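pipeline stage [seq->struct] | target=GTPase Obg | organism=Aeromicrobium alkaliterrae | residues=537
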Amino acid sequence: MAIPSFIDRVTLHVAGGSGGHGVASVHREKFKPLGGPDGGNGGHGGDVILRVAADVTTLIDYHHEPRRAGGKGMPGAGSNRSGANGADLVLPVPDGTVVKDEATGEELADLVGVGTEIVIAAGGRGGLGNAALASSKRKAPGFALKGEPGDELVVTLELKVVADIGLVGFPSAGKSSLIAALSRARPKIADYPFTTLVPNLGVVTAGEVTFTVADVPGLIEGASEGKGLGHDFLRHIERCAALVHVIDCATVEPGRDPLTDLDIIENELAQYAAATETDLLDRPRLVALNKTDVPDAAEIAEFVRADLVARGLRVFDVSAASHAGLRELGFAMADIVSARRAAEPDAPPTRIVLRPRADSGVDAEFTVHRRGPEDAPQWVVRGEKTTRWVRQTDFSNDEAVGFLADRLNRLGVEDKLLTLGARAGDDVIIGGSGPEDDGAVVFDFDPQTPAGAEVLGPRGGDLRFDENDRRTNRERRESLEARRQREAEAREARESQSDDEYFVGPDGTEVEVHDLDEEYDGDEVVETDVDQEADSR
């Protein structure tokens, strides 16, 4: 099986690198029991970038390896050390590559000009460590944010050759020979149909004008419907300033003549232009009657010249073998190219415009819609922020969940749900994507209730630094002195009362026991049977 060397259409799976996770860490040092949070942030994931390179003419590399991904960000570490960013992945593509979304068919970019680039899949942002999450109200966060996954996309890369002049014609009409005679290009040339399997490019200089010429592999009748090779390569003439019909005047095939060949090719171009909504029919046209070095071909060219001129076409008798007429054809093509370049306005300088995604208000940053039965409704919350926050949350950490609830509440999600009629106990789905809610998390709606980490305060707060139960030295001395005084008073009472006994309870109160018919069991005074105790003795 032959291995293709020219690929002009591929499907590419790209994924940005995922961001590294932040880390929750506490500074530890001798004589500093509360050193504070020092967890570092995770590194950002690497982007996937498509960039036009001068030395790349085919998409064959992506035909063999259709899956590409950026580098992953490294996780953070203690001592405020951030993780390393993932490496960007730069994919070189040929000049004239069109990038489309495989799912929707939307054109994402038209890469023309060496150095032009686009970030096709952005890497995920790294998660924040607990040092970055600390604030005056949350002095020692016990959680960190997770890194975000990078963008994932399936795109189609289509190569449309950037050429000024396009050569079209039947197989073996001499298009490759014409390019070889006009330029230094050396395409494969043979005397059998469909010798040319890929578009060829040649650089031609006529006077002070330099331009490029491309040929489309042989067109036949029905090419616009997929017959032959022309259907796959007609896109390569969409950028051309003019088309040159190369007509074989020396053909001996039955039913072939210059006028019939021209009508067939024109019809195929018209059908392709209608299907793709391009303006091929409005391009200037030249006719090159080729192989006029053959006597019979010269006579045929002279016979059809008047009809072609009557159609408003400029006609040139040329021979790729003897180079006859090539100079005149080259200057005619240069005139068309110069006129087009002069008519094109100067490209304005690139202006960076930042446009907010929402007009105004917090409600525009997310949407809420209801689904499911009346007795068990589900509320689906969609939005870029909410989805990103859910991905960043470590749901095994109650404090992190409380932090998420606090962010959603500030954004206005809870108020919006109440406005729409959500009731306690309803399912709230947040963070999903697609019709199946991929990656979504389901919560039980419980408005106006602190969420998680209640011991540390509502919604991820931290009360450990607000409450202090440790006694000072003065308070300890006063407590010890009061205890000693109570013990002394109890001792004096026992010595002055012969029939009564006093015990000091655990709370420092005195308990009196009369006539040995009561005893103190540590909690209360209970009566005892004196005679029974005597009998037992």
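stage status: PASS
auto-comment: The radius of gyration is 43 Å. Residues 359-363, 451-461, 514-537 have pLDDT under 50 and may be disordered.
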